[in-house]
Structure formats: C-alpha cells, structure tokens
UniProtKB/TrEMBL annotation:
It comes from the Bacteria. The chain crosses the membrane at residues 15-35, 62-83. Residues 51-86 form the DUF6460 domain. Keywords: Membrane, Transmembrane, Transmembrane helix. It comes from Mesorhizobium ciceri biovar biserrulae (strain HAMBI 2942 / LMG 23838 / WSM1271). This is DUF6460 domain-containing protein. Pfam families: DUF6460.
Length: 87
C-alpha cells in the first residue's frame, strides 16, 4: 500500500470517483435551493456573528437583572444594617 493510498483511504481513482459523485449530489441540492458557495460562506459567517451577539446580549441581560435587583437589595441591606447597628 503506497503512502498516497494510505492517506486517501482508498485508491486515488476510487477517491476521485467518490468525490465527483458527492460533488454532483451536493451541487444538485444547492441548485435546488438556489444556494451558491458564497451564500453558504455568508450563512456560516452570519451564524457565528449571531452567536457572538447573542452571547453578549445574554451577558447584558444578566447584568441588567443584577442591577435591577441591586436597586432594591442594596438599600434594603443598608437599612437593615442601620436598624441592627442601633441595638
């Protein structure tokens, strides 16, 4: 078994034939949906950008909840500490 065959996993001719068949099927499906290779790349980019933005939006919402709760909890804590300090 040659190094090329070992690397490809099969004989070069069989690998080329398999790649041609799979490329044809993928091209057929992409054409049916009206996709181009650039649409796929833009879709992948948009997915990661949305994921990135969603992550920061989640952090923003989390910090917003903390600040909203702190507006009640911190003054209540201070009032309770002052009330217990006089005893």
């Amino acid at each position: 078994m040659s190094a090329l065959t070992r690397f490809l996993g099969d004989s070069p001719l069989k690998v080329i034939l398999k790649l041609l068949v799979v490329s044809f099927l993928v091209g057929l499906v992409m054409n049916a949906f009206g996709w181009s290779p650039m649409d796929v790349l833009y879709g992948i980019r948009k997915f990661f950008m949305d994921l990135w933005n969603l992550g920061f939006h989640a952090i923003d919402r989390f910090l917003g909840y903390i600040l909203l709760g702190a507006a009640i909890v911190v003054p209540a804590f201070i009032l309770l500490r002052l009330a217990n300090y006089r005893k």
